[in-house]
Amino acid sequence: YQRRVHGGTCGSAGTQTSTYTITTQASNGGRACTNKNGDTKSQACTPACDCVGSWSSFGSCIGKCGSQGSQTSTYTITTQASNGGKSCPNNNLETKTQSCTPPCLDTNCVGEWKDVGTCSATCGYGTQTQQFTITQPASGNGIACSNTNGETRSQSCLLKACSAPPVDCSGIWQWKTCTAKCGGGISEGVYVVKKASSNGGSDCPYKNGDANPNPKPCNTNPCALLDINNEFLSIGKNNNSMWITLSISLGCVAMVISLVAVYKFTKRQYVEVQELSEI
After folding, report:
1. What does the alpha-carbon distance between residue 219 and residue 178 come to, in Å, rounded to a whole number?
2. Residues in contact with 155: Cβ distance below 8 Å, sequence separation at least 6, in sequence order
3. N or C of the chain: less Cβ packing under 10 Å?
4. pTM of the full predicted structure?
């Protein structure tokens, strides 16, 4: 039998016919064929279905005005292959793209200034360069940017405040008036800060108003000899005593009156006469 499919469409029932063909006739008492040459028989069958699919139209062009864009097409299978039917050349929902030129609408220009350099100063005020970058050019009847792409300008910049240089403390000793006009006294010193330290500068060795630990002697010269009507007064002293000698001349007679004063010295202490003798 040779089979042939007749009638029916993909997805519906069909019939399949078989035709009997005698290739060698019986002879010399041989057994005859069970069917006549050309006999047919039929049976129900399901026809083979080939895959059916197609590409969609390309979609809208995607991209910025004035630049190259792209658009996409999608392959959609509407009938899958079955019963030995042919497969589709592409997978379902497979995509392909092609380049295109996006349409230009009325778009305003978009751009901004951006820092492109560092501040010229390490502290305080300096200058810095900025560059204008256009991210969306104007198109159609859109408004253009006020600056061109790549245009530069300089502007002031402020970093952290600059540190002031260190200032060292400076001061002097100011000495008070001597405690005695002659015969030896002392002068006390007081430290006066002229400029205080700042910004990490060195401090003065003494605080403002500190007293000098070593008062200095002053007016160490002996007190001067006094001349009052031919009367001569001389004063002398050692560590623990003072003497006053008064000489009076009366013609050929000389009288010397020695006044001896013994005392212990303290600051601003006056002479106290303890003994009077006549020679």
Report:
1. 7
2. 127, 128, 130
3. C
4. 0.32
